[in-house]
Design brief:
alpha+beta, globular, 5-stranded mixed β-barrel, 6-stranded mixed sheet, single chain, 35% helix
Length: 485
Amino acid sequence: MPSRRIRVTGTPEAPLRAALAALRTELGVPETFPPEVLAEAERAAKSPVPPAEDATDIPFFTIDPPTSMDLDQAMHLSRRGTGGTRGTGGTGFRVRYAIADVAAFVVPGGALDAEAHRRVTTLYFPDEKTPLHPPLLSEGAASLLPDVTRPAVLWTIDLDADGRTVAVDVRRALVRSRAKLDYATAQRQIDAGTAEEPLALLKDIGEARERLEVERGGISLNVPEQEIVEHDQTYELAYRAPLPADGWNAQISLLTGMAAADLMLTHGTGVLRTLPTAPDGAVGRLHRTAHALHIDWPHHMAYAELIRSLDPHLPHHAAFLQECTTLLRGAGYTVFRDGNLPAVTTHAAVAAPYTHCTAPLRRLVDRYASELCLAPGNPPAWVLAGLDALPQQMADGTRLAGTVERECVDIVEAALLKDRVGDLFDGCVVDVDERQPTVGKVQLDTPAVVARLEGGTTPLPLGERLRVRLTQADPGTSKVRFAPA
């Protein structure tokens, strides 16, 4: 899981663009797709493998950031039958979740397939992205854009009134999205009561799934997103705390990933996203961090219960949520086959078996997961042949994505502060190195920067406010550093 998300609104200024271009060169990030890959993508875009079923009568919609064009998922939500006990009139729900069918365009062993295995995942930079598949497919022919017919892997998941899964079906079908929504628009319509039922039910189903997450001991971290915003021809950093609609939308994806994992486990072959339970030492460190940040964590309160009580709009809560991501860094991919189930089948944060299957335009493993669920008893030969290599491929790709994320945050912060070296800022000490207590991290009040703090002679006061001086910031050569004033 990313420690800090960051995105740019507007066009970055030249020094920032130059530093990001240099980073791509340093990391060996490909600038373009080879000609043979683009040629194959163009042919595939004109003639994808058509599914047998037609579900274009279902009015699907998508929810994504406003500028996104690589739309992996579209949904339609409705009420169904009777069942359950919670106060919803005895009705249950039907979740139809359409996932872009990348396998309808990518020939196993072809140039597109080989390039996807080389790239593994889409890489996100503040000024642009390096996609897993050519934009002709990922933002065009394979994307679930509105008012166009697309091949999809269509999940139909029936829930009772409490949000529990009672039936699952997955098949290929043609779909047609009717609306492209963003999170803020969806939230406004739901809050105002103007949303039509398929969107309005996102709150009912999302909240029901959140209650079940609490029941099973799962955790969703609402980590604020760091954002660089263009304002009066300059740039400033801000934090964006997730909206409730972000969480409800994520619950639909989690629901599908859990259903896919159950299918794989039932049939004995698959690839899971797994995370072992955090060791006591890591949780103990978080207890000390909570105390230093003046967050009340009684010993009888479970970690998951504490997380749900936090408000990401509050700086000290946001800082603690950032620290909590350290418990999720042991996640990996676990392959199994022929009924030989692995020792660990669950994801500790989900508190259930889970797999990645809802973002095949942006992540390689999801294409494999879809095929394993479409034909769980007899997956295609290319899936079985490539299965064992997937965990290492995904680990390498995820590691590179993490490096890109960390370096981009450093570059953006340095670009915005490059003319302010020597200035004083107010902030809060949000992390202290246990081995070097004079070194840590400071979260500024404004701009929204979290950076290394060093150079003092006394131990840093974790959780306390501190006046700090900017000692270095150069997007081309050095990261942002502060020292106690």
